[in-house]
Amino acid sequence: MIPEKYVSLAKNDSSKDKSGAFSLFDIENFIRRIIRNWYWFVLMFFLGYTLSWVYSKYYAQNIYASNLSLSVSNNTASYFTPNQSINFIWGQGGNQDGVYLKKMLLSRSHNEFLVKELGLFVNFSTKGTLKSTYLDKSDSPVFLEIDRKHLQQVSYPITLLPKGNDSYEVVLPEEGHSGNLYNYEIEGFQNIAEFPKPANKTIKLNEWYTSPNLRFKLVANPVPTSIKLDNIIVNLETVNQTVNGIVSTINVDFDKEINTIMIITKTGFNLNGTVNFLNKSVNELQKKRLADKNIINKNTDVYLQNSLDGIRKKLDSSALVLNYLKTSEKLYDIKDRDEKSLNKIKDLEAKKADLLSKVNSLNSIRNTIDSQNFDRMISTGAAGFEDGFFSASVSELKALYLKRREMASIYKPNSEPMIEINRLISEAKQGSSNSLRSYYARYYDEIGKIDSEVAAANSDLVAYPEKERKYLDAERGYNMIEATYNSLLGRQNEAQMKVATNQSDITVIDPAKNLGQLPVGPNKKGTEFGIIGGFLFLPLLFIFIGEVLDNKVRNIKELLSVTKIPLLGVIGNNSTENMLTVLQSPKSSVSEAFRGIRANVRFLLNENQKSKTILITSSIGGEGKTYVSINLASVLGLSDKKTILLGMDLRKPKIFGDFNIDNKYGISNYLTGEVSIDQIINSTKIPNLDVATSGPIPPNPSELLMSEKNIEFLDKLKEMYDFIIIDSPPVGLVADSYELMKYSDANIYVVRHEYTEKYMLKMITEKYHNQEVGNLGLVYNDYSTRQGYGYGYGYGYGYGYGYFDEDKNYKEPLLIRLRNKIQQILRKK
């Protein structure tokens, strides 16, 4: 933004518009920072790659998976295995047997049985130089069998070192032994008195190792292993830990095409371990399913046998009565018998007898439910029906009763959980009762119809004499009891046949096998990308935080868009300690920048004035205010303009050192009347440049600068010089410069790159737009050559073109050299 001539006079109301605000995050500077710190990203990439490689090779534990597929038949009618899914209870369809089996496979009771049966709470591993490897029990040459009656310390590594001749040295950790021990019988912890660290000991196979916190023996693996191990590390876990760990590694899915086929997957650190567990788990499940199915049929057989025993007695009694009537009353040969009506009555009463026996079976089922004695439940087939809804509701009711018994030891009777479980029990009980009532109603309705038909058939027999009717009644009673007996006998045969021919409804299609499957985890590529990405993210995060927290001015475009103050020029970094850059390096790019500032300052000045006063200030010290003052005065002096440089920063005198001038007498002495004006004006090596230093630090610098004598002093200098350059105090610290600006013709505000705080510019910006300060321009100082020049305000040629003195030492950045090399190669092709 090159200032227009007389810009201060041309300002109108639009110049009073509020200036903008610096952005919290500068994306351009953020990207520049990333490029500038590229080496951190390279370093972090190699560090992350190295760490991920070491982790993958030496520390990552491979995870294996094995699968087993099985088929579930849907012909089961047991209260303990069928359609018991709660989904079925509420009327939802689907593969209910499969859902129930899935629940069983993932249940705590099933997996706890396997943990105890297989001793899975004993974990084996071996340690190499850098990495530990988990072993399956079958991979170890010896098994560790604990004494479950003895308290054991869990999560306490036991190292077994082979010593030959079937002996192993037991090495325990130096620290970590504890008196908080686990009891495998009650599955809980108990405390014992403190004890010293158990000693290491060499034991032979089948010899007990006993200490306060351990008791075990080593048993040889009956199957010789081909793996030679230098050490075997054994860790004991609690049953609960082991069960939870196993359940979390099991996944059960259903085939998308045939939903009765289940696919069970087990993951683990050892492939053989997953294979053995899956096969054992399904084998035990098959046994349990078969046993559950037979419980109902056996209960039904016992119930029917008891019923048959009672009916047999009635049948024998009825036979005696009938024989008596035949022999004593001679009624065995009744003339003109209506065989058609009698046969009809016999058939009807046989049906009635069958229905009554079914009603009796219903009574038994209802009584079992009411008494909650589910282990004595009989099959619904004994009552003449198969109802999956009823079986599911009974199974759910049984589970809810068990759950309530468990909760009763934890919750109070009137607590919310107990109220909820009682509600669920009431709903399940209502569901089973409704089913039974429907069958009661059906059977009694059929019995009523049979009674009506029997009554109608009896009307045809009223003509028989009383004795003959008595015989016919006895015969009908016998036939009815006989029909009941035969019906019960047939159902008993059916129940016994089921027990004899029952098979598990689970059929294994593909058992789990060790086929040398590759590991399914960990995701080494994902881990590698994650580690590398995490390391690359660290410098990015620090740069981002630095950018957000950074409040320094770094972007010229943003500075101008926010302040809307004209820019007079951009000054590069002064690589030397000498402040007289224009004199010492006249051909440098920095010197050229000051010449550009000299040219641009005229746009702030009134050309009609004979003498021009230029005040230079900044926000705080260290921004280059004095440096700009010295070199701007030098440039003006070298251009044959009679110039004087005034050191009016009375609190912090500086200028005298750069010009080798004695600061014994200066402006402060003149303003106090100690010396004359001629005594404070000093000549320099530049013929047209004089310097008046600040002098000794006075006790009242503000009063001196604002005094009438200082104003008179400036008026005298205007008669003597073409340009008066005032090096004034920083406006962010004291208000002296704002008072001096009333007597200056142009004001230069120095902003230092990556040094000036953004908030410091608020005051000068507001005063400028409120027209409290006029003829103001910015000088951007110490702009780093690493970021390149090119803003075009008297300083934009850059390095590398042989134009400035610095070009002889210029070396292109690495990225630029790489780019040029690639372009050369491409041009050759």
UniProtKB/TrEMBL annotation:
Coiled coil: none annotated. It catalyses: L-tyrosyl-[protein] + ATP = O-phospho-L-tyrosyl-[protein] + ADP + H(+). Keywords: ATP-binding, Kinase, Membrane, Nucleotide-binding, Transferase, Transmembrane, Transmembrane helix, Tyrosine-protein kinase. Residues 612-754 form the AAA domain. Gene3D superfamilies: P-loop containing nucleotide triphosphate hydrolases (3.40.50.300). InterPro entries: AAA_dom (IPR025669), Bact_polysacc_biosynth/exp (IPR050445), P-loop_NTPase (IPR027417), Wzc-like_C (IPR005702). It holds the Pfam family AAA_31. GO terms for molecular function: non-membrane spanning protein tyrosine kinase activity. The chain crosses the membrane at residues 38-56. Its EC number is 2.7.10.2. Belongs to the CpsD/CapB family. This is non-specific protein-tyrosine kinase.
